């Protein structure tokens, strides 16, 4: 898939989030990269043979104190990783939506255990 199409699908997934989320998504950049760097993999705790679909890098909202004059938090979606998990364009769309929700949840302080308890993968 062309990167521009993938980025359009990411924007669409973000636009589909409830308005309450949009109003609290302050100082967050959303980017698309082909695949994670070695440092991003190490920081995620995954092995190099595991597939990282997205990554939130920053300080979750509940943990912020005196949060002024800092670089934006960053949510990265990894296009090659996502596409490798999918067979059809519909699968890619669904995986982008799931990954966006997952990484935005981290921005709001919801960890993987909480997401699993909520039935979010």
Adjacency order of strands in the biggest sheet: 1-3-2
Poorly predicted runs are none
The general outline is globular
Structural class: alpha+beta
Largest sheet entry:
3 strands, mixed
Looking at the chains present, what oligomeric state does this protein adopt? Answer: single chain
What is the C-alpha radius of gyration, as a whole number of Å? Answer: 14 Å
Order of helices and strands: HHEHEEHHH
Task: Classify the beta-strand content into a percent band.
Answer: 5-15%
What does this 3D model show about the protein?
There is one protein chain. The protein is built from six helices and three strands; from the N terminus they run H-H-E-H-E-E-H-H-H. The chain has helices spanning about 5-15, 20, 40-45, 80-85, 90-105, 110-115; strands spanning about 30-35, 55, 75-80. The chain is about 45% helix and about 15% strand. Helix 1 packs across helix 5 (about 90-105). Strands 1-3-2 form a three-stranded mixed β-sheet. The model has no long low-confidence stretch (mean pLDDT about 85). With about 120 residues, the chain is of the alpha+beta class. The radius of gyration is 14 Å and the shape is globular. The chain has a single domain, classed as Zincin-like (2-Layer Sandwich).
Key terms:
single chain, 121 residues, alpha+beta, Zincin-like
Question: What can be said about this structure in brief?
Answer:
The chain contains 6 helices and 3 strands. It is of the alpha+beta class and 121 residues long. The two termini are 24 Å apart.
């Amino acid at each position: 898939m062309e990167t521009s199409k993938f980025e359009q699908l990411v924007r669409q997934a973000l636009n589909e989030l409830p308005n309450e989320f949009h109003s609290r998504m302050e100082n967050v950049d959303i980017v698309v990269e082909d695949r994670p760097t070695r440092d991003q993999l190490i920081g995620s705790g995954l092995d190099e043979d595991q597939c990282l679909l997205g990554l939130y890098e920053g300080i979750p909202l509940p943990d912020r104190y005196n949060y002024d004059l800092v670089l934006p938090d960053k949510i990265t979606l990894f296009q090659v990783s996502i596409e490798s998990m999918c067979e059809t364009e519909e699968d890619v769309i669904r995986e982008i939506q799931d990954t966006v929700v997952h990484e935005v949840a981290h921005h709001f302080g919801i960890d993987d255990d909480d997401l699993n308890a909520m039935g979010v993968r």
